[in-house]
């Protein structure tokens, strides 16, 4: 589930909420899954991964990760991303482009404090994306953290990322692939609306 906080009242965000509610009511599983694509300028590589979108606060989309991860290196190298959501229950795809940034440390600490001890133990114990000898070692590190670490204190290498879209496309699948595509692109403070061919 995605938590909406003081949602921005501009048209693209209201449409997003409507599409979310439709998918939720249709029983969409993994409704918070969002694919984030990034470019690592140092490696000249594009990469994608799914993350859990936790909050939409006003116009900011927020998820959490390890700041030493592969994705973090990409964000540090090039702060423009593409994001993609697909809800199969309603055959809706939402594409976004945005600039990404870290959330404030105080925000991370507050969020971390209220998470489960198991989730926090994994966040503390995992060197995300780094090679390890075996899955047994992952489990052992997790157990050690669960037993020995302060599971209410957010480590400096873990926290949130937020992005505010400047482009959002709502794609709705239809019969014969006569798909509806509505694009919203922000120009300074104005959202411009375009209808795209399938």
Mean pLDDT: 97
Order of helices and strands: EHEEEEHEEHHHEEE
Oligomer type: single chain
Compute the gyration radius: what is it?
18 Å
**Main β-sheet description:** 10 strands, mixed
Instruction: Note the overall shape.
Output: globular
Return the CATH class: Mainly Beta
Q: In CATH terms, what is the fold-level topology?
A: Pnp Oxidase, Chain A
Count of helical regions: 5
Helix content range: 25-40%
* Strand elements, count: 10
Structural class assignment: alpha+beta
**What's the number of structural domains?**
1
Please state roughly what percent of the residues sit in beta strands, choosing from under 5%, 5-15%, 15-25%, 25-35%, 35-45% or over 45%. 35-45%
CATH superfamily descriptor:
Electron Transport, Fmn-binding Protein, Chain A
The span between the termini is 30 Å
pLDDT < 50 stretches: none
Q: If classified by CATH, what would the architecture be?
A: Roll
